[in-house]
Amino acid sequence: MGEPAAVAAVPEPLAWQAAALEDYSAKQERDYLLAAWVGVGKTRWALLTARTLLDTGIVARVVVVVHTRYLRRQWRDEAASIGIQLRSRWYNGLSREE
Predict the structure, then answer these.
(1) What is the sign, positive or negative, of the torsion defined by CA atoms of 78, 80, 83, 89?
(2) Residue 23: Cβ-neighbour burial (10 angstroms; 0-12, 13-18, 19+)
(3) How distant, in Å, are the alpha carbons of 41, 50, 67, 84, 90 from that of 29?
(4) 77-82 contacts at long range (C-beta below 8 A, 24 or more positions apart)
(5) How far apart are CA 70 and CA 85, in angstroms?
(6) What angle do CA 89, 69, 2 make, to 5 degrees?
(7) For the chain (length 98 residues), average pLDDT per consecutive 10?
(8) Is the pTM for the entire model greater than 0.90?
(9) How far apart are CA 50 and CA 37, in angstroms?
(10) How many helices (H) and strands (E) does the chain have?
């Protein structure tokens, strides 16, 4: 789950991320598919979108589900950089230490 953390400086999105966020916001649809090459910033875009939804009160929490511990840490660390605190101790529904 993600909840707003202490005030963090949210990085400026890349040009394509800003355009995709604007497109997502303009469509006002629940579902949105973003496809891009590996390493170009999909995680950052998703978290910037989540930050916007949290800040505007559209959502109260964010849940991220990934299939490896590495990805769980990656998402947790990236989320923290924009002020979203993800609990990363949950594993298959159980709370465990990493």
Answers:
(1) positive
(2) exposed
(3) 22, 14, 26, 23, 29
(4) 78/43, 78/44, 78/47, 79/2, 79/47, 79/50, 80/5, 80/8, 81/8, 81/11, 82/8, 82/10, 82/11, 82/44, 82/47, 82/48, 82/51
(5) 17
(6) 45
(7) 57 87 86 84 91 92 87 91 82 56
(8) no
(9) 20
(10) 3, 4
* Amino acid at residue number 32: Y
Q: How many residues are recorded in the chain?
A: 98
If you search the block for the tokens 């394509």, which residue do you land on? 16
Amino acid at site 38: V
Q: What is the token pair recorded at 87?
A: 């609990």
